[in-house]
Design goal:
The protein is mainly beta and 287 residues long. It is built from two helices and 13 strands; from the N terminus they run H-E-E-E-E-E-E-H-E-E-E-E-E-E-E.
């Protein structure tokens, strides 16, 4: 009896191949990539340079009544120079800031002012700051304030490899000017990857708050004391292979409270402000 299906064997063969390909696709499904986040300032003499832009608008209240409107912009250049690598791969880094900013006097006249600041920081490979020193002149109260800002505001990376979608939260406890304790925390989430300023980056989305006390050491009651409450959300673009920050974008809502005496009368100042802050990598070199 003649074979009525002369392509039967070939069809079966191609069906087997198709099935094998399909099964191969199932059995060899690629796993989601994982990433080890780290902070890398090596080698000694490494210099990382950034530009930063800030815009703030807000209102200052005195004893509950509007006192004045506030708006200013800041352009800054910030560099990190690695001075030493300690045991445990702790990097000793000199941070230098040059701020070009608006200054408004009591008459409302705006002038441009340049300020420079410098700090010496010690970073662990996971980004945690384990040493902080002010190099430029600064009051003890501002030194404590800035240290709190760095310790609360810098991400500390997980020790294990993580995948897109992973989240972690950092918590801090601080003592306020009235002796009460306050909690703050920030949650970071790995959202994906992107090409940014010629770098392959991981995108970290974050949201949280900072609580920054300002407590003067002097007993002068005319010097304001209080704290800043900062609600923030933003994006960090990290070159995870190189271990450096490439770019950042952040929105902040800031409520600052200060209490002081004027003519033996207690004065309460509250400033409510909104800020936009962005930064970008300019250059990497070795001295």
């Amino acid at each position: 009896m003649a074979n009525k299906s002369p392509l039967t064997h070939q069809s079966a063969f191609f069906c087997i191949i198709a099935l094998a390909i399909a099964l191969t696709g199932v059995s060899c499904t690629q796993e989601d990539p994982s990433f080890l986040l780290r902070s890398d300032f090596s080698p000694v003499g490494n210099v990382i340079e950034y530009s930063l832009q800030l815009h703030r608008v807000g209102t200052v209240f005195e004893n509950g009544e509007p006192l004045r409107e506030v708006e200013f912009e800041i352009d800054a250049d910030i560099s990190y120079t690695t001075q030493e690598i300690l045991p445990g791969d702790i990097a000793v880094v000199l941070e230098q800031q040059k701020w070009d900013m608006d200054k408004t006097d009591d008459s409302g006249k705006v002038t441009r002012e340049i300020k420079e600041r410098a700090y010496r920081l010690q970073f662990k490979p996971n980004g945690k700051i384990v040493g902080f020193e002010v190099v430029s002149a600064m009051s003890p109260a501002w030194t404590k304030y800035i240290r709190q800002y760095y310790e609360q505001g810098m991400p500390i990376f997980p020790s294990e490899k993580i995948k897109i979608g992973h989240s972690w939260t950092q918590h801090s406890t601080v003592e306020l000017e009235n002796g009460e304790m306050a909690q703050s925390g920030t949650t970071y989430t790995v959202k994906g990857t992107a090409r940014k300023l010629k770098h392959d980056c991981l995108i970290l989305e974050y949201t949280g708050n900072l609580t920054l006390p300002y407590i003067p050491d002097s007993k002068d009651s005319t010097e304001g004391r209080g704290h800043d409450q900062i609600e923030m959300n933003g994006l960090l673009y990290l070159d995870h292979e190189a271990g450096i920050l490439v770019s950042s974008e952040e929105r902040r809502r800031i409520i600052s409270t200060r209490s002081f005496f004027r003519d033996n009368q207690l004065v309460e100042h509250v400033a409510e402000s909104d800020e936009m802050v962005s930064s970008g990598l300019k250059n990497i070199s070795v001295e």
